[in-house]
Amino acid sequence: MLWQWANNATQVFILDLDGTLMPSAEIDNQCFWQAVFERFGQQDDLPDLHGFQHVTDTGILQEWCTDKLGRCASPQEIDWVKQRFLQLLQTAAKRNPSHFMPLAGVEAWLQAVADHPKTFAAIATGGWGHSARLKLQLSGLDRFGLPLTSSDNAIARTEIMKIAARKLQALHGVKNSTISYIGDGTWDLLASQQLQWGFIGIATGDQAKQLSESGAKLVLTDFSHP
11-23+100-220: what CATH class? Predict the structure, then answer.
C-alpha cells in the first residue's frame, strides 16, 4: 500500500501527473487537441489515446501528423502547438481551478515521502515539461521540488520513466531500490510491466476496471488510503 513502507528498504516512486496527482487528464486532452486542430486546420473528434504507439505529447503529435498529413511536424509547428496549448491550459485554470487541484491525500503523501529518509519520488509525465511545470505551480505541488522528466526528454514513456529513476539516483545516490510507478492509464501499467517495475493505479469507475482487467494488482481511488 502507499503508506506501508519498510523502514530499512529504499523505495522509489515514479509518478505520472495528469489524472494521478490531479484531475487534469480530461482538460489537458481537450486543450492539447484544440491546439493541434487550430495549427493544422483540422477538426475531428478527439482521437482515442489507446490507438497511439507512444501516449506522450511528442509521440502523439508526431504520429498524428504522420497519419493525417503524411509528414512529421516541423520544429516551428511543434513550438506553436506547445505555446498555444499552454495558453489554453492557463485559460482553463482561470475558468475552473479545480482541474488542477491535488487529488485527496496527495499533499500529505508527498510530505510523508519527503520526511522518510529512504523513500524518494520523481515525476515522469507523458506531457511536455512546460505544461507540467504550469500544473505543478497551479496545484501548489511545485513546493515539493520533485525532479521532473517529460516527453521533452524522450518519446517513449518507458524511457521517460527510466530517466526519472536515473535522476533520483544521481540526486540521492539511490541504489538497489524497489521502484513503483503510480499512474492512471493502461499505458502506465504497460510501461511498468515492460520495465518490470511495481505499479499502483490511481483511478475510479471504468478506468479502474480497465486497469484491474489489464493486470493491475492495486488500484486506489486517490492517495488518502492508509
Answer: alpha beta
